Amino acid sequence: MLEGIANDTLDAVDRVLDEHPARLRTEEVGTVTRVGSGIAEVAGLPGVVSEELVAFPDGMLGLAVNLDPDRVGVILLGLGEAITSGTEVRRTGRLADTPVGEELLGRVLDATGRVRDGGRPLRTEDRRPVERDAPAIMDRAPVAVPLQTGIKSVDALTPIGRGQRELIVGDRQTGKTAVAADAIFNQRGTDVIAIYCAVGQRGTAVARVVAQLREQGALDNTIVMVAAGEEAPGLQYLTPYAATTVAEYFMDQGRDVLLVYDDLTRHARVYRELSLLLRRPPGREAYPGDIFYIHSRLLERATHLRPDKGGGSLTALPVVETQAGDISAYIPTNLISITDGQIYLSPELYRKGVHPAVDVGSSVSRVGGKAQLPAYREVAGELRLAYSQFEELESFARFATRLDADTRATIERGRRVREVLKQAEAQPLPAAEQVAVLKAVNAGVFDDLALERIADAEAAVRRAAREQLAEWARRVQAGEVPSDEDWERVTAVAREAVAELPEAGEGA
């Protein structure tokens, strides 16, 4: 009798499956056993895989990261206020992904694809995993094309190439974001796509950058991906990886991308918070043992691809915050060892009014010099030498009562170099104008001017370069090596422009 009932039941199931094949399906359902600040522990999901998304009843998603035999540690991608012990959790069978495509240009969004600019939702259905393997070594090409930032102290002395990873490091309020933003502004009108990834920043700070992008006309070619400091820690952790995936979409098409991570110090702190809540063993400064790995696997995805792989590039400008100028701290040294150089912003220079506060002696580019425009190389060496000599003598000169003529000349030239390297925020300069000004200061054109007149003299030289050296400027931008006659012409035009300046007090 029991056998007959069993056969009838099986026949009924077979009929339902034949008539409605999609009606019956299996589903793994787990239960929350513990919930904390941004994390949850779940029991009952034996088949879940690492980095898989799991769904909660209120529509919120989580990221499975700890796969222990009896429980799963989940990072919540939302505040999770409605989640309590006993809440059901379901597998989605989908790895963490983010939308990609041309539609993202000009938009402000988060890592999940939700728009944050008040516009219409994204319509793209193309999504890619946020975690991807870095390109193989044999798929990479040397860095050979410069990425102009429009900043004199960077393009001349710490140049960046397309496909490079250059760290921007400094204390709070030293202009790190301003340097990165200027690099983005300078890409307007070029073939470079910019992505600004804000992690842990105040919402007002991100809004300020977006407003500047709009004012500079650079927003249409830029994507802003944001996870503000008041948002869920899990979303802040995921955002840099999602931004990199979006950048790789364009790189795979053979295009050049500039990606700014602002900043990875906050990213590391968020990951430390989540790891401690997930009860991972703490290490140095309570950071987990894989803190180096989370940034290395991120930044290794930045590269320049070989021509047969499309020839695209991804240039990364990660930002890291130091305390009291300590670049030997744990996270800064990790990132310095991963990247191809660093731009160090000095709080002392910032307080002196030197903006951008780039410390030339502590900044280095290990790759970009090979991609630097040849015209810069003609002026950079002499400029760096004059500035370094000045910095060495400046501190001693404060205590000296009498200085010889050569020492005074070195100090005066260095002061003028420092004035020339000053640059207003959100005013990137074309390469030829930069080179003309730097050649002028090397040639001593500004030596007889008072320091307060250097800015006017620089503006006059730049204007003369635009009006009288247009053909030379075109050749500089094209990467040609200027001849001796070219340099003589540039110096002569600069001297003439400075000589025509009104005397101090005239024209007021």
Which features characterize this protein?
508 residues; alpha/beta; 15 helices; elongated; eight-stranded mixed β-sheet
Q: What would you call the shape?
A: elongated
Helix content: 25-40%
Could you tell me the mean pLDDT?
A: 92
Rg over alpha carbons: 28 Å
Distance between the termini: 111 Å
> How would you write the strand order of the largest sheet?
8-12-11-13-14-10-15-16
Give the helix/strand class: alpha/beta
* Percentage of residues in strands: 15-25%
Annotate the secondary structure layout:
Elements: H1 2-19, E1 29-35, E2 39-43, E3 52-55, E4 61-67, E5 72-76, E6 88-95, E7 97-99, E8 108-109, E9 127-129, H2 152-155, E10 167-170, H3 176-185, E11 192-199, H4 203-215, E12 222-227, H5 233-251, E13 256-262, H6 264-277, H7 291-299, E14 313-321, H8 330-338, E15 341-345, H9 347-351, E16 364-365, H10 374-397, H11 405-421, H12 431-442, H13 454-468, H14 470-477, H15 484-499
Parallel strand pairs: 8-12, 10-14, 10-15, 11-12, 11-13, 13-14
Antiparallel strand pairs: 1-2, 1-6, 2-5, 3-4, 3-6, 4-5, 7-9, 15-16
Helix pairs in contact: 5-6, 7-8, 10-11, 10-12, 11-12, 12-13, 12-15, 13-15
